[in-house]
Design a protein that fits this description.
The complex is a heterotrimer of chains A (381), B (246) and C (367). Helices cover 66% and strands 8% of the residues of chain A. Chain A is of the alpha/beta class and 381 residues long. Chain A has 2 domains: 8-57 and 183-380, no CATH class; 65-168, abc type-2 transporter like fold (3-Layer(aba) Sandwich). The two termini of chain A are 34 Å apart. Chain B is built from 8 helices and 10 strands. The radius of gyration of chain B is 18 Å and the shape is globular. Chain C is an alpha/beta fold. The relative contact order of chain C is 0.11. Helices cover 66% and strands 8% of the residues of chain C. A 4-stranded mixed sheet of chain C has the order 2-1-3-4, sandwiched between helices. Classes of the chains: A alpha/beta (381), B alpha/beta (246), C alpha/beta (367). Chains A and C meet through helix 2, helix 4, strand 4, helix 6 and helix 7 of A and helix 2, strand 4, helix 6, helix 7 and strand 5 of C. Strand 4 of chain A pairs parallel with strand 5 (159-164) of chain C.
């Protein structure tokens, strides 16, 4: 029968044992994860490849548009115009064709646009300059299936053919925050959001559910360790992995893509860590609700990743959405994260400017953790 | 003297610089219940997988049902049955569907399948459970069903890998009765286990420690040899210096 | 033959009884086809413009009303407060600020006026540049109408533009074939791999490996259900495209079926090949995610291949979806014939053969 005086000592010993247990469990989890080298490699590769692709390969700019020309009279004016097109980087001049070839060339995809010059072009051009009325002397036939490219190509062609450079002289344009017009900047926050969901929601939930499936989860839960500690032990290694990946992404963004990050790195870190916690709580929630790994995978994939890819604004601008989806996107956590990071990383806004986004993410994290806890206690009974 | 159905010479399996099975040699005779004993991690399952054509030996040779384990794995498979630790039946299929599946896999026609299916279910007294999903069955029933299905194509040898794990003693006893019945019918049984009391049920027993066969004889003679009262004692004496296992 | 039949039967039974997959297979294509075309837009619309009008002339008012009337631009306000506008730019409520300088109208009549200042938030570079373009064009039009600019713009009246194959510039029509392909990739590229790896993890695959089952029979039994599902997805997608979005194939439906068949064969073969090298769910999940990500980003589904640098364009020749994207969009939107697409078909057909052979050959019953 131990006396009261021993209680503090006992308690201290007990909590030391608990701490050791947690540490041991975390260590076991980490070793288990690290043993799967292929997965670890891919966890690193995904953000790296995405940054390279978005930074250097993918672009929505129009380039290399194949253009053919129909010109019954190859006058000086025609040659001049064709030269301008051929020397322009946006276009690739594919040669002269006949009127009856237009259909086939466009339909087969050999060319994306055909410029048709009216016969007797030079004379008709002079007439126009003289102010006399005239019918159209240039026809642009454009493959409009790719709407973006068609619109841009049409605009560029008109500029080149009509020499509307003078228009530009009237304007002074400034592109803020992104003077080099790198489309990559816009996508980096999305890449971050994506990889965190992948690691913290999908990977974590699959890992927890695997123990459930194999049966060792029950073993852990009946052990003297409190269930919350079990879940902590599962989440901590993924938290660490996320931090490592975060650092890699930030380094690559800064040194490879030259993203300015003028708002200060700490703000970006704080918001990212909060988002990691949020993703972990989502992973936890999924793992409590489902029974098999496949279900965990598909649930986190369909319910988390897909909405994130479509609705968060990482790839497709929210402003383009129909009203209903614009409202719906408010529910997607990634939307706020991406907005906040964009402001800090690219616009250089200070942390205080994104307090709203931070607060929303904080609220969501608390809610998800709360729901997980409730559901977990339910399941325990 | 019964014919030799399994013959193993200097069989070795290495994974990198870890030698799981080290130079084992033995014979198994027709109609025997051959027990392959050892602690967890001793190499039993690895050795058995080589005999079943699931894994290529690193060196050495062996024949099972007259076929070479290195080159004729697919032929071996036509003549053996197998039941793994995990019972490996499809959980989301019914009892009847599992039987039809495995019978079909071994090439039995629809009529033969139907006949054997009825026989099997009657023998196990499962006929009422034909349409029950396997995942709803208690562990002991799954085990018996898996064993029965392993023999549905009347193989010469049935390999059993730790078949009685996690099951209560009564069910274990019933299971061994099934094994006896099969052996009496001429089927050779090759069974691995880490339950030493089950060794008493075998015709001959081999004990693996750290990847090597340290003893091979009938249970009676082994107990005499080691001056032990039970197979358990025999094992503990052999395993005293073991590096691997519990 | 019998082993193959019972194996195939087993796959269908398993699929039917699964708690998740049947719902997913039905809901995913339908949901994506109904929702995604509305969301997956990379065109630039609703550019929020604020005009800082320091001139207060008829000209400047004309400019403002043109901006208001533009279908791409959204006039947020015409204010005199530059700082207010700038704040909006930083917060994201305003995308472009147009500042019309003092005495603009007066100077135009005389000589070269002070330049109109356009400040764009270029965090989204495409929006910034295209938005600026639209603003410039809109203002230029306004000035033309007002008669202040001369010949170059009169010329713009004598150029006509004919938009073929998509005269209404319907963006969803452009994206729907891409979305269909994404559905195929998810359903026929991701799920078959999961099916095999699940058997590996549960252990039933061992029972198969220890039996005399032919690996071609086994592989085929794993593939066929997903071919069926892929076709189901195709029908659903085409029906929704037709009745909800009004998109009807301009070309032959048989060519679409052939292309889809080859693509489904290819992508499921690829899926199984990857699965043969993975032993855990976690691994296959990440490996497939990686490849699917590359397929979707680099095959011309979301952004044009022509816009990529040369090295990237060469790389895309290795990606099977690239050929099918070309086929499906061409046939759906332009009515391209199979003869005109023969190279794509040959490439896709070769991939189909290669990956299916690989899927069977890389399956090891004995390790």
């Amino acid at each position: 029968m131990k006396s009261f005086a021993c209680w503090p000592a006992m308690h201290k010993e007990e909590s030391k044992v608990m701490k050791n247990n947690l540490f041991a469990l975390v260590k076991k989890e980490s070793l288990h994860i690290l043993r799967d080298k292929r997965t670890m490699l891919i966890v690193i590769l995904i953000p790296v490849v995405l940054i390279v692709l978005f930074g250097f390969a993918i672009s929505t700019e129009v380039n290399n548009v194949n253009v053919a020309v129909v010109a019954p009279d190859r006058t000086n004016g025609v040659n001049d115009a064709v030269n301008r097109i051929a020397h322009n980087d946006y276009f690739t001049f594919c040669g002269y064709i006949n009127q009856d070839q237009i259909d086939q060339q466009l339909r087969s995809g050999k060319v994306s646009a055909v410029i048709v010059f009216a016969p007797d072009f030079d004379r008709r051009l002079e007439q126009i300059y003289a102010g006399l009325p005239s019918t159209p002397i240039i026809q642009l036939i454009v493959d409009a299936s790719d709407v973006n490219s068609a619109g841009a190509a049409t605009a560029y062609m008109q500029e080149i053919l009509l020499g509307t450079a003078s228009q530009q002289a009237m304007f002074e344009t400034r592109m803020l925050f992104n003077p080099q017009m790198k489309s990559a900047y816009n996508f980096v926050p999305g890449i971050m959001g994506l990889i965190f969901i992948l690691v913290c929601a999908m990977m974590t939930s699959v890992s927890i559910v695997r123990e459930k499936e194999v049966g060792t989860m029950e073993v852990l839960l009946v052990s003297p360790m409190r269930p919350t500690k079990v879940f902590f032990a599962k989440m901590i290694p993924y938290f660490v992995i996320s931090c490592v990946v975060l650092i890699i992404i930030l380094l690559l963004s800064y040194y490879l893509l030259h993203v300015p990050m003028s708002g200060g790195v700490w703000g970006i870190f704080s918001m990212s860590l909060l988002y990691v916690l949020l993703s972990l709580s989502l992973g936890l929630l999924v793992s409590i609700v489902v029974k098999t790994q496949v279900a965990a995978l598909l649930l986190s994939g369909m319910v988390m990743m897909l909405p994130m890819l479509l609705l968060s604004g990482m790839l497709f601008p929210i402003e383009n959405f129909p009203k209903f989806f614009e409202v719906l996107s408010n529910v997607v956590p990634a939307r706020w994260y991406i907005e906040g990071i964009r402001k800090m990383m690219i616009q250089g806004s200070p942390f205080v400017a994104v307090w709203k986004e931070f607060a929303i993410l904080l609220g969501m994290t608390v809610i998800f953790f709360g729901v997980s806890l409730i559901k977990f206690n339910d399941k325990l009974e | 003297m019964s014919e030799t159905v399994i013959s193993v010479r200097n069989l070795t399996k290495r994974f990198g610089d870890f030698t799981a099975v080290n130079n084992i040699s033995f014979d198994v005779y027709q109609g025997e219940i051959f027990g392959f004993l050892g602690a967890n991690g001793a190499g039993k399952t690895t050795a058995m997988r080589m005999l079943c054509g699931l894994s290529y030996p690193t060196s050495g040779s062996g024949t099972v049902a007259g076929f070479n384990v290195m080159r004729e794995g697919e032929m071996i498979k036509r003549h053996i049955g197998y039941m793994s630790q995990r019972f490996s039946l499809y959980n989301t299929l019914t009892v009847g569907e599992n039987i039809k599946l495995f019978a079909g896999i071994y090439g039995l026609s629809k009529q033969v399948t139907a006949k054997r299916s009825d026989e099997l279910l009657a023998r196990l007294k499962f006929s009422s459970e034909r349409n029950t999903l396997v995942k709803a069955l208690p562990l002991g029933w799954k085990q018996k069903l898996a064993f029965a299905i392993a023999g549905i194509h009347r193989p010469e040898i049935i390999f059993l890998d730790e078949p009685t794990g996690g099951v209560d003693p009564v069910t274990r006893r019933q299971f061994w009765e099934m094994i006896y019945e099969a052996a009496e019918g001429g089927t050779t049984i090759f069974v691995t286990t880490h339950y030493m009391d089950e060794a008493e049920y075998c015709s001959r027993v081999s004990i693996m420690v750290d990847g090597e066969v340290r003893a091979l004889d009938t249970p009676t003679r082994l107990k005499q040899q080691f001056n032990a009262g039970s197979m358990d004692e025999v094992f503990r004496m052999l395993a005293r210096d073991a590096q691997r296992g519990e | 033959m019998r082993p193959f039949i019972v194996l195939l039967n087993k796959e269908f039974i398993k699929l039917r009884r699964d708690s998740f997959l049947p719902k997913l297979i039905v809901i995913l294509p339908i949901a994506l086809m109904l929702i995604a075309p509305l969301l997956v837009r990379m065109d630039v619309r609703n550019v929020n413009v604020a005009v800082v009008d320091l001139d207060h002339s008829t000209t400047s008012h004309r400019i403002v009303s043109h901006i208001k009337a533009s279908e791409y631009l959204s006039l947020i306000g015409a204010t005199a407060e530059f700082d207010l506008a700038m704040k909006g730019l930083e917060e994201g409520t305003i995308d472009i600020i147009v500042q019309i300088p003092d005495h603009f109208e007066r100077d135009m009549a005389v000589s070269t006026p002070e330049k109109i200042s356009i400040i764009a938030n270029a965090v989204n570079a495409t929006k910034g540049s295209m938005g600026t373009q639209y603003v410039v064009q809109t203002i230029a039009h306004a000035l033309v109408e007002f008669g202040n600019e001369k010949s170059p713009n009169q010329l713009s009246e004598v150029v006509t533009v004919q938009n073929r194959y998509n005269p209404t510039l319907n963006y969803p029509h452009y994206m729907i074939p891409a979305l269909m392909i994404i559905i195929f990739i998810l359903v026929c590229g991701f799920l078959p791999a999961l099916s095999i790896v699940e058997e590996k993890e549960v252990g039933t695959i061992e029972q198969i490996n220890v039996s005399p089952v032919n690996r071609f029979d086994f592989t085929l039994s794993k593939l066929i259900p997903y071919w069926v599902i892929g076709f189901f997805a195709l029908i659903v997608a085409m029906v929704i495209a037709h009745f909800v979005y009004g998109l009807i194939p301009a070309g032959s439906v048989w060519v679409i079926f052939l292309g889809t068949t080859l693509f489904i064969l290819t992508i499921s073969g690829f899926s199984l090949t990857m699965a043969n090298f993975s032993n855990t769910m976690q691994q296959i999940m990440f490996v497939m995610f990686f490849f699917i990500m590359i397929f979707i980003l680099m095959s011309g589904l979301l952004t044009p291949i022509d816009s990529m640098p040369d090295w990237a364009q060469t790389f895309t020749l290795l990606l099977p979806p690239r050929y099918f994207t070309d086929i499906l969009r061409s046939v759906y939107l332009r009515g391209t014939t199979i003869a005109e697409l023969w190279q794509n078909f040959v490439a896709l057909g070769s991939f189909a053969i290669i990956f299916n052979i690989l899927a069977a050959v890389t399956y090891k019953k004995q390790a």
